[in-house]
Structures are given as C-alpha cells and as structure tokens.
User: What shape does this take?
Amino acid sequence: MPSGCDAVITVLMDLKGRMAWDASLLEVQSLGTHGPDLDEVFYVGVKSPSGLSNRDYVKVRRFKKLEDGSYIVIERSTTHPNYPPRKNFVRAEVLLSGHLIQPVPGNPNACRVTNVSEIDLKGSIPGPVVNFLTTKAPFSWFDAFIRQAKDCSGDLVHCYRTALFRIAMA
Assistant: This one.
C-alpha cells in the first residue's frame, strides 16, 4: 500500500472521517469504550444492493501497535443496550474480522495490509448476490481506503480536509 502504517491506522480507526470516503456506509457511531483495554464499541449501518434489506452491526474492536511498527486490529460483533436490532435493517454478525498493517522494510511510505473477515450477513440472500458481495465489494472498499490513506500523512486534520474536499468535488 502506498502509505505508511501510521497513515493507514489513522484512516482505519477514524469512524467519523470514514463517512466521507466509505460509500457503503449509511451511519457510523462510536458507542464508547469498555473493558480494561478500552476496546471501542461502535454501530455501523451499511447499504445493501437494491432489493435487499440494509445491514447493520454493533461491533467491538481492539488495536495494538507492535514493537516492529505493525498494527493489529481485531473486530467482532457485540451487543449494546442502546442499539438493539433496528427496523428496516438486518442485524448481521461479524464472527471475526481483522487487519494486520505491516511496514515495508526500507520504505516508511509503504505498508502491507492483510484483512481477514468472517461475516454472517443473515437473512435470505440469493447466491449470485453473495458472490458479488464477497468478490467485488471488498475491492471497491479497499480502493476507497487506499485513496484516503494515500492522502493522509497520519495527521487526522489533514485526513478530514482531504475527505471533505472529495465530498465537495463529487
């Protein structure tokens, strides 16, 4: 990826800014932290293809910076008393999702990003739509993510300005 680890983790962890570059989102809301490691709990509403109900999630995530400069981010579904399943959404379940962001030796402006996700979208979804969602949608998301991370130096204010500029130009 043509961005350093700090820029990538900044874009990935910034829920508020993500609304500006992630076209799949309808809503994202931080619900606070819990536990001894201050894991972040958040709500996400996601657009589904035409003819399907939109999906939503309540997730908890933890991230850690490793000694070699890598970051690891782990997410899974959880519940929250203020965010029960909502009308007009199907509550999907993230069984496990994670990102490993590793520096490229000798190049501080590049990193390798590995993502693994196991998600149960719930509800009844035709096979061709499942195939689309699992083969095309992740690449669209990563393209937008890469564009945003390229424009981010790890400085959150710069990331916001870049994302807002993209919205204004759209």
Observations:
- The mean pLDDT is 84.
- The two ends are 24 Å apart (CA to CA).
